[in-house]
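Field reference: sequence -> structure
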Amino acid sequence: MEYRKLGNLEVSTVGLGTLRTFDVDSDDDIAVRKQIVDNCLAENMNLIDSANFYGLAEKVVGEVIEGRRDKFYIATKVRTEGKEAGQAQIDNSFNMLKTDYIDLFQVHNMVDWETQIPTLQSLKSEGKIGMVGVSAMVHEAYPIIAGLMRDGQVDTIQIPYNVIERGCEEELLPLAEELGIGVLIMEPLKKGRYVKELKTQPDLAPLADLGIKTWAQALIAWVLGDSRVTSAIPTTSRPERIHENAVAGHVGRMPQELRDHVRKETERCLEG
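Structure field:
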């Protein structure tokens, strides 16, 4: 597994997202999530991303990493308006995750970032969190994020990036490289659409020498082929997917001609 710098941390280039997939409450479902995390350890994946807004996800993460908290870097998010509500939500995240230290705390989708970033910066100065970040789904937020990056108010950003969604290439990725800011990537598979909704089979043959055997691996490796990206954090509810996803973390920098192939093949197969 390749590792890249996220602030002063060395994180696996493939991490684990928990949106929807960890919002479960039955013993059987939680046991499956424990197996997912077991497989992350087996593949040397050390980054888990969650959020208060993800239902029970933080609670489930806290349960399945109990006794091995030191094996993972934990990122989560606050999403609410107002200082008191933000502090209450942050406190709840510490409780749900069963930890007194969170490696990265982000403002979720930029909700009331003007209030929440100062709170997170205070927690960082107190040594309760390691880094402050922001996440955003829409391009309209990118100019604000760029300003926060330039002002030194954030250590990381979390944005969508994949073979079709490339809006961050224009300003945010160059700026992150210039300023040494970590970049977490959500939706490398567009919620699985770029695997499940292909109308024809993509050509994997040119990728065989990289060890890539599935299109999901190709898509994640495409994202990681950009050296400005720190880690991609796909979600899954199937433990075996961890082993599949981890292959992309061994590819390193995919040559540009192969990145072009993956992009063109995805576009071709989506169109049918």
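Note: The chain has a mean pLDDT of 97.
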